[in-house]
Amino acid sequence: MEMFDLLAHRARVTPDRPALEDLDSGERYDYAALNERAARLAAAARQHWGLKDGARLAYLGHSRAEFFAMLFGCAKAGLILVPLNWRLAVPELTVLMEDCQPGALIFGAEFADAAATLAEQHQGLTLVALDGAAAGQRDYAEDLAAVQPDLSGHPDKDPDTPWYLLYTSGTTGKPKGVIQTFRMMLANYLNIGLAVELTGRDVLLNVLPLFHTAGINLYSSAVFLAGGSVLVARAFDPDQALRVLENRATIFFGVPAVYQALLEHPSFSGDRLKGVRSWGCGGAPLSLPVAQRYVDQGIRVRTGMGMTETGPTVFLLDEELVIDKIGSVGRPQLLTEVRIVGRDGQDVPEGEAGELLIRGPNITPGYWNRPEATAEAIRADGWLHSGDVARRDADGCYYIVDRWKDMYISGGENVYPAEVEKVLEQHPALAEVAVVGMADDKWGEVGKAFYGLRDGADDPGEDTLRAFCRERLAGYKVPKAFQRVDALPRNALGKVTKQELRDAV
């Protein structure tokens, strides 16, 4: 199967249909205009920025509609886009730059100082300013305006050609650049687009960062393939999000922190959000109390699970099962196979926990310049070892129990911190909880719980929380220590970075 120019074909089919809107700048593109913009970027990258086939083009900036012109423009030019995590400090960005060696860096004005520092460290790097160039820099708008775009579409190419790199958070070591391909994007469209029944009439509100697979593919890239419209927010703002959800959006995907913030907003009302026909959640588990509060508002939030390495969609919960299967990520979608295996590599019986393995056309070819890490994660038989602990119930629904590396062994018994966290989340005074293992002379390892309080709640204290756990958990699962924190450390998608907590203990 050869891969054709997806955007050029969509522009041919529905040229006048709205494709993109930047909610902050007001900039809008129909499909014909977006295709032309991407073609201009492709020409400018070659003519003005000196990039050739396979070269990397980095982007450092907040979310904006223009990002998707860069993404599809790189496809047209045969380049590899590298969206950089703007939350990282310059030394952390330097690690990524050294790994992928981009020939040019497009940056937003908010990161001009960081871009200048990176250019000093990487000789030969072309700086391209989105918001007005300084001396020695290329001006993005001027360069795109000065070229003659080729609107015919790029030549057919191998669907496994690297298209863009997404770096993992690196909470347990050196970040890895996960290769993303055309095949992965198409597989994701079939996995999520069919499940959500995307159409050209759908309007997506995208509030997630575009250096992450969720921001790009849940559901933006799938909406483009369906011919719908994507509204891009510069960042998540509850006021703006609720206005758009009430008046314009038909579909929405968020992470638990986003759903929590919407729920706590004084103007939140399920009755005012009936125009949104589908709600999705991923990135981290949606706590049972939050899921139930949405159900009480008449909103069924479909939880799912995926990874950067899987493009990302693997699982999605059926809407009719949201109440009965709260806590489940659903069933594997159309183009994905899964297994649950024990440490011996054999499939575990139904209901038992083991490592989740994933296989299908949605799996990455590997990690950029990391053959050893690729071979460790993706075995010769094609199965990706996810590092997640999962179980399957009698109805074929899957549950993510924990991360394989987060499990600890106390007195010879496996303890999955996520199970303990779900119990503590039920305490009325606690807003957030994270449990990690720590060394113990007697038991080998024991648990330590970090917790934050709800607004206005009194601290129940260690003895009360321990007693609360003892009523609901086996003794070896009850944390030995408890520590109150102002806030848990989280990454860009709101997922708790447990390595920071492990380092603390």
Automatic annotation (TrEMBL):
Residues 8-368 form the AMP-dependent synthetase/ligase domain. Residues 419-495 form the AMP-binding enzyme C-terminal domain. PANTHER family: ACYL-COA SYNTHETASE (PTHR43201), MEDIUM-CHAIN ACYL-COA LIGASE ACSF2, MITOCHONDRIAL (PTHR43201:SF5). The keyword Transferase does not apply. GO terms for molecular function: ligase activity. Belongs to the ATP-dependent AMP-binding enzyme family. Pfam families: AMP-binding, AMP-binding_C. Keywords: Ligase. SUPFAM superfamilies: Acetyl-CoA synthetase-like (SSF56801). The keyword Ligase applies. It comes from the Bacteria. InterPro entries: AMP-bd_C, AMP-bd_C_sf, AMP-binding_CS, AMP-dep_synth/lig_dom, ANL_N_sf. PROSITE patterns: AMP_BINDING. The lineage of its organism: Bacteria, Pseudomonadati, Pseudomonadota, Gammaproteobacteria, Oceanospirillales. This is Long-chain fatty acid--CoA ligase.
